Amino acid sequence: MTFLPPKNTSEASANITSNTKSVIEGISIDCVIFSFDKKNLEVLLVHHAIGESAGKWGVLGGNPELEEGIDHAALRILYELTSLDNIYLEQLKAFTDPDRVRSERVITIGYYTLVNREDYNIKASVSVFEAKWFKINEVPKLIFDHNEILEFSLMQLRNRVRQAPIGFNLLPEKFTLLQLMHLYEEILGIELDKSNFRRKILHMKLLVELDEKQQDVSHRAAKLYKFDEAIYKKLTEKGFNFEF
Amino acid sequence: MTFLPPKNTSEASANITSNTKSVIEGISIDCVIFSFDKKNLEVLLVHHAIGESAGKWGVLGGNPELEEGIDHAALRILYELTSLDNIYLEQLKAFTDPDRVRSERVITIGYYTLVNREDYNIKASVSVFEAKWFKINEVPKLIFDHNEILEFSLMQLRNRVRQAPIGFNLLPEKFTLLQLMHLYEEILGIELDKSNFRRKILHMKLLVELDEKQQDVSHRAAKLYKFDEAIYKKLTEKGFNFEF
DNA sequence: CCAAAAGTGTTGTTGATACACCCATGT
DNA sequence: ACATGGGTGTATCAACAACACTTTTGG
Lengths: 244, 244
Hints:
The structure is a homodimer.
Chain A: H1 9-17, E1 27-37, E2 40-47, E3 57-58, E4 60-62, H2 70-82, E5 88-96, E6 107-114, H3 117-123, E7 131-135, H4 146-160, H5 177-188, H6 194-203, E8 207-213, E9 223-227, H7 229-238
Helix pairs in contact in A: 1-2
Chain B binds a DNA duplex through residues 176-178, 193-196, 198-200, 203, 214, 217-223.
C-alpha cells in the first residue's frame, strides 16, 4: 500500500479548494488520525473555518474522485494535511448519519491511520489546514457523526492491536520496552505488569535488540529496540496472537 | 437491529424491478449470506439472468434509497430474497473494484449475514430470484469483484467467530455439542478435540442444557442445548474470548 | 545516598493438549 | 456384535499473574 504523492504541494491542495466536478456524488471520506505522545493517545482534528460547521472541530475529510479507488483517495487526503506518505491506513466501514440524509453527503467511508509523532512534527508544518492534537478523552463535540466515527475507530484500534503489532506505527523507530508497554496500557485502558510484559513480548521474538541506550534520562538508561518487519511478516502468515 | 418488512411481497419486489430515481448514484450494496448445512459452510448465490452479467452467479446485491440508512437497505434487500427478518447482519466495508470504475456502480458496501438453514428452508420458497447454496470451496468465478467480497467476508467470519459466539446464528435453536464443534471446525478449518471442546464450551456457561435429546439417530442420542441470550449479553459487556 | 526506572527471578495457579476409556443405541 | 457417535477422566506441559528483588544512573 504505497501512495505516490504529487510532486508539489500546490497541486495537492488544488484538489480540495477547487471543487472539480469529477467527484463522486453522495460519498465522502473521513479519516481518524491517531498518534501517541509520550503518555497519551491523541487524535488529530481539523478546524472548520467556513460553511455551516464553522467554528467546530471534525475529523479530516474529503471526497474521492471518480476514477480513484477509495483507499487511494484516503491516502491522498491524508497527504494533503500531514505531508506524510507510507502511513498505516485501514478502512473502518461505511457510515450513514441519519442527520445527513437530505444534506449533501449521504454516505461516508471511515478510515483510521496510525502516525508516528516524530515524523508528523517534522513534516506537518506545510499544512494548509488548522489542525490540532486532542487527547483521546478530551475530544469536544464534533461535526456531523464524527464522534461516532471516532468512537468506532477507537474500538477497532483496541481490537486490532490485540491481533497484530500495528501499535508500532505509533512509536518512533527506536523505543524502549516500557514505552511500548505504556502504549498498550493507554490504548487498552489497562495496567500491565512490567516483568510479565517483558517476558511475553521478548518471547515473541518480534523485537530486535539494538546496541543503543536512551540518552539524557535522569535514571538508568534503557536499551532501545526496534521492530523487525521481516520477522513480523513471517509470523503473520501463520497467524499469531497479541493478547495482553 | 430490527427490520420491519413490508406487509406484502409485491410491494417488496417492486423495489427491485422498477428502478425508481430515488436511489443513491454510485453506491450499491452486496450481501454475502452464510449458512451451515450439517457439515458444510455454504453461501447463497444469485443467478443473473439479464444484463451484461447474464449466466453468471453473484452475491445478492441491490441499491440503497436516498432516505434510507445503508444497514436498513441491506436488511430490506435481504428480506426481498429470503423472506427472513431478524437476521444477524454485519457490515464488512466499502469496496472499489478497479474494473468497475467508469461503469455504473463505483462503490459497493459489503455485508455478510448468518442464517439458520431451517428458517431459510421454511420461508424462502416465495423468492423471486433464482438462488442456490454453494459449498464454500465450490464457489465458481463470480461477477465483478464478488469473489473478493466473499473472500473478505470469510476472513471476517473467521475472525469474529473467535471473539463472540455469533456462530450460533448458523445453527438451529436446539443443537448438540458436536454439531457446534463441527461448525467451529468447518469455519476455522481446524480439527478440535471432542473432550476438550466440551469442557471449554461448558465452562463458559453460555449454553443451557435442555431436557430433550436427539430423535431418530442410529446411535446414542445426544443432549440438546440452546444458547442463552441473556447470559451472552452479560458476558459481552465485560468482554470475553472465544479462541479455539 | 536517594529517587526512579531498568531489569531479573520465583512461585502458585490456570488452562490447553493429548490421550484412554466407557456408554447408549440402531442395524 | 459392532459401528457410530455420546460422554467422562486424567496426566503432562506451557502460559500467566503476582510479587519480591537487584541494578544502574542522575542529582
